[in-house]
U3 small nucleolar RNA-associated protein 15 homolog
Amino acid sequence: MATYKPVVVQAFPKLGERITQDTVYWRGYKTPVQIKEFGAVNKIDFSPVPPYNYAVTASSRIHIYGRYSQEPIKTFSRFKDAAYCATHRDDGNLLVAGSEEGSIRLFDINGKAPLRQFDGHTKAVHVVGFLSDKYRIFSGGDDYSSNLWDIPSATEIVSYSEHTDYVRCGCASKVNADVFITGSYDHTVKLFDARTKSSVMTIEHGQPVESVLLFPSGGLLVSAGGRYVKVWDVLKGGQLLVSLKNHHKTVTCLCLNSSGQRLLSGSLDRHVKIYSTTSYKVVHSFNYATSILSLALSPEDETIVVGMTNGVLNIKHRKPEERKEKSRKKRQPAYRTYVKGRTYMPKQEDFCVSKPVKRVLRKYDKLLKSFQSSKALDAVLEPPIRLYTPEVTVAVMQELHRRGTLRSALAGRDEKQVNLLLTFVARRVIEPRFTPVLVMVADMITDIYQPVVGQSAIVDRQFLRLQEAIGKEIDYQEELLEVLGMMDTLFATFTKKRATYLEENKSNGLTETIETNMNN
């Protein structure tokens, strides 16, 4: 008896992922390190000076982490309630933070007790930061006000009450020491100048604003709120340049890389999107376990830190560059070691022992070998095969058809099994690689179960889905044929024009030659 030959599953080419320079660059991070904080991480801020430690604000504490430390090297915990938005000054010596009780505290990075406390807000202060002159602080709170403070005297310089809802984000200009920007839940972004008593520009974002970011040049402003990230031209009076809608949920944080050529946005949909600042197209994306609240990149993009709603801090460090120095290779065995004995011919008195090769058959092959067609079809309709390797399911159906037992394998099934079969066929019949086999299977199922149509609402619904899928595919094919006809007509027209042009040139050349000869 001939040995059983396993079912041959046809291999189809897979579309390869497009590998770009951004893909290679942003994949160059190690496996992330995760640290559990006491509460949701609402702010991450890197020190602008070496060794680039970063401050993490979560719950009622501010932790300072070293670049590679998994434990905080310093903690500021002089808060009665939640702390917000701990931000470094440009020289890295001072740290300012808001709080739920409405006060603002200024810390020396090497001390513990606050150097200054600024009281003036009546509700929680969610956004604080330094102006670029290093001697003033701006703040925004849930009392709808945006204030400016003097560090040496610990007094309020000016207070703006132009927002009509909570002020939850802000940033300062690096170019002009008097300019700062705040974003509010009243859907507006306001640009303030400390030399005036009111805002100098108001931009309507259209959604509650969660984060704002000013480019280092000071000419472009990015606002995030709802599912939208919008880029505005400040120098043109707040003109909208582009509106990006690549997230599925609210965008909560924004960040620029060290070169300013890539913009990062984090969202509650658990994704970090990276955009090119020239085309504003997504060039890469990171996926995280839970919703993202805060995001920061270290100088030179060496470390990316993400804070999440469940209090987990996700830290990725860049892999070190491979050294090009050639290491000494271990001496390999000579070639003769591998080919030794391969050319040996057995002598007449030698006794040859052959070791049989054991072939392991899959479950459906074992069932096909024992002629259990219906059970073999059931085996390839199990979720792991049906969902992830549908080509195996189709290959077994094709083998059953070759044997002439496909109709018997499809017949005699209950409501649940017929529903499963029709679901698979309706989903995969539109794929060109499966269409020939599954159209034949659909015809057989329709012939077998036509007498019982109308007895089960579930089966009837699946038949309607199959009809709808095939109808849509036919419509698509008809539209494609129409487009092909149009393209053939256009190409034919171009070909005729080109041929006519060549003929005219030839005839003109011939006429000119005849005229020249006659003149001579």
Observations:
- The longest strand covers residues 41-46.
